[in-house]
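Priority: low. Protein: TetR family transcriptional regulator. Input follows.
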Amino acid sequence: MMKKQLIMEKALELFAMQGFEATSVQQITEQCGISKGAFYLSFKSKDELILSLIDHFMMQITSELDCIVRDTEKTNEVLYKFYYGNFSSFYKYSDFAKTFIKEQTHSFNEEFILKIHYYDSELEKIILSMIERIYGENLPAKLDIMYSIKGFMNTYSHLFLFSQVPFDLHQLAKSLVEKTDLLAKHAAVPFLTEELYQNIKHPVTEEEQKEKILEIIDQKIEGLKDDSIVQESFILLKKHLKEPTFGPAIVKGLLENIRHNSHCKWITYLLQSYLKM
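Result:
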């Protein structure tokens, strides 16, 4: 196991038992059986470790939900699979989810807040694309429906994470599909307009998004030398990002080359979102 991964796993165990604030770097290094020096070679501070954990889990959940929305062929199954996939992910990452929910009310630095806004914005994009696919692009209350779906996800995640009673995720997903359908079909008084929505968002500029994608691509090119097809696809996608030269069919083919690699789900999602593919 890589040292960085070991630190993250052992730290998560301690955070789940004690919380972020009560857990020290010393306790983490003792749990890992490493020196403090070894810890600081991987992370500059405990805050950076926490942010890395948030990145890891939010990337996994966001990219998994995006794959569900994109890959589900039958439109009438998308919403159910979305809800089921979301709650399954919360069960899968329940230790971190519980710790994060309990600790997020504490004071965090600006970088933490910006990171949460970023992943929240990405989730909203996925939900809006799903709503438009299911109910049509001209649904008057689509922004209100999007926030309703987020509310369902948040409320029911809290409910089953902190309850000792076992939940039937299949029944939960079916129930929320019914509620969402009712709202979408009968909501007659929308509150959120596009103008209001844009004013309350915290958008990342297109140039900032491209820089982030190029940085991750460089990491993938270096780290995936054992997969020549994926590596070459990243090299060509990087070239296309810097100076668009390929047609949509070629770009889709390059994305298809990388999307099935388990280490490339997040960067695939970012590229698809940025390139509007």
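The radius of gyration is 20 Å. The domain at 3-43 is CATH 1.10.10.60 (Arc Repressor Mutant, subunit A).
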